[in-house]
Records
---
Amino acid sequence: MASLLEIRHLRTLAALRDTGSLVRAAQMLNLTQSALSHQVKVLEEHFGTPLFERKSVPPRFSGAGQRILELADAALALVDEAERDVARLGQGGDGQLRIVVECHTCFDWLMPAMDEFRNRWPEIELDIVSGFHPDPIALVLQDRAEVAIVSEQDADEAVDYHPLFRFEIVALLANDHPLAAREHLTARHFADQTLITYPVPDDMLDIVRQVLGPAGIEPAHRRTTELTVAMLQLVASGRGVATLPMWAVQGYLERGYVTARPVGRKGLTGELHMACAPATSGRPWLDDFVRITRETCFKTLPGIELL
């Protein structure tokens, strides 16, 4: 008898377990929530039993749901391994993957993705191009790196872009800072402050590019540091204000080390993309690296939205 179960059903339940909600599972799988719910409903009607408890967060799977998840864990690993092997046989799997990053906080999420990639593609020589590079795409075009992690897409560059995720950027203040009493900050609130940033050009700082620049605001003082923890120490001691991704400071906020406020009524968001040469886009391991990075980050970083 033919089975109703398909690979997509197994991926759906695994994503639901890994992300903890229908909404996030649908986003990770690039499905609408209604399409994902329909898949689950079809399975439940077929087996005549619910697969998980709808009201529990995260979802609590039933015995039937757990059994299908056991199948998913075993089968999906074999499917992914077989697909990688076929790609190796068909296009070759050897090569090197040198990564250059534009942002100082990228290492927090990049390292777990690289570890997972090494497990799947051990024959690929994987490395990070050391040092800060104001024009990472130039290294890709000069064949000094295969992938650049950048914040914006530039249509004039002769590279392919692979979207990763969007994230919220928050203003960070000392807990007793007067601005901590406000619901959100606007450009004018930075005018008489010391703005603490990484030592990068202003066009690479979202707070300057998206907020302060368009408003014609220049903070009273500027200070830079290369270390995120040093930046947070300066903020906590009242030496200035900073803006960082929410996922980079979540742990410090939970410990009450500093206070975070949205920038603007609707909040300030940033994006990250992978840029590579068109020839690199055609390599089978590059597509897998993009997928691994997106999925790893979506499961582990708070509040991000896949692009």
---
Amino acid sequence: MTALRTIIAGGRKRIGLLLGAGASAGMRKIDGSYPLIPAVAGLTTQVLGILDGEYGKQIAELKKELAPKEDIETILSRVRALAKIIGPAKIHDLDGPGYAKLGERICEEIGTIVKVSLPPSGSAYSDIVTWIVGTARDHPVEIFTTNYDLLMEEALERVRAPYFDGFTGGRDPFFDPVTVSNNDLPARWTRLWKLHGSLGWCSNDKDEVVRSGKDSAKHLVFPEHLKYEQTQKAPYAALLDRLRAFLATPDTLLISVGFSFADAHISARIDEGLAANPSASVFAFQFQRLEDEGCAGELGRRLPNLSVYARDAAIVNGSAGLWKVPDQLPSKDWGPIRSSYWSRPDDASPYEFILGRIEDFARFFSAARSAQAFVVSPALPADPDTVPPVEALIA
């Protein structure tokens, strides 16, 4: 953590962020409640609940077929497959055009649910943007995200921070793969790569993806078999290639939060990039306990340059170990800094590494340039001799 704070406080390291669904789900609403946008489980419950009256029979039968993996992403993938394959034949009393309509309805409801705005009083994404614009940089910050909401765009635009998302133009902004691959814009322009599509994307009359500026939710990419077909097309193939190219660059650090590594397409690019470039690194900050982070743990044990930081333990250099208190602090004033990443919810709970939570993660980044910005948690004493530090001891 000492080294990480030094790296993110300066502007010389090539740094990328990978934001998964847990990032949007980990932020609070304007009334202080959670989540700002539900994760997959909550999204599934809400969307299927809305559609139950109209498509109850089809949903029930599809859930039986897909059990135990019956989340909204898997269901939508199956619905899209049936829409393409069965034609006039019927399955569960619905033909191909009927399933096409069901797929559109699912996307519409997803768009309605995730079409939210950031709280005006501040958010984790606002803290991340504060960190991005807070220093002159030799290299641009590149944000890779599987989220299709427009929250990061909103956070950047609130402070007039320039960014490039692969599209250019005024009336119907088109995707420009040349600029994406060359990456030759000024370093002060943040790169924002929407790996699974975006609410603002749609197709024109040539079946090309354009950025409409509307919340259509028509170009969302989900797991299962259709993702391979869709991710071979622009802009998805170019954005995934950008992730691989980023990791192929010497002395690169990619930091993930809210990402489970269950997405095979993205994890494959990370796997290939780290295997081919030992000087690149990935720090995976995970929300759950290490034993519950199966996909991230598998990569961490196999790739020495991918470190997994979970609540209770870590995998560093391919070896797993519990967090344990070292004998000495890195500096005498480290107590307040430590409380920003090593805390506990109450006096009866054990201490945990908390940067797997997007709000704590963003706060740590935004405050990295100033020790005064770190506030001691009431649950932690300010005396550095009594504040438990965090360090992974490798067995």
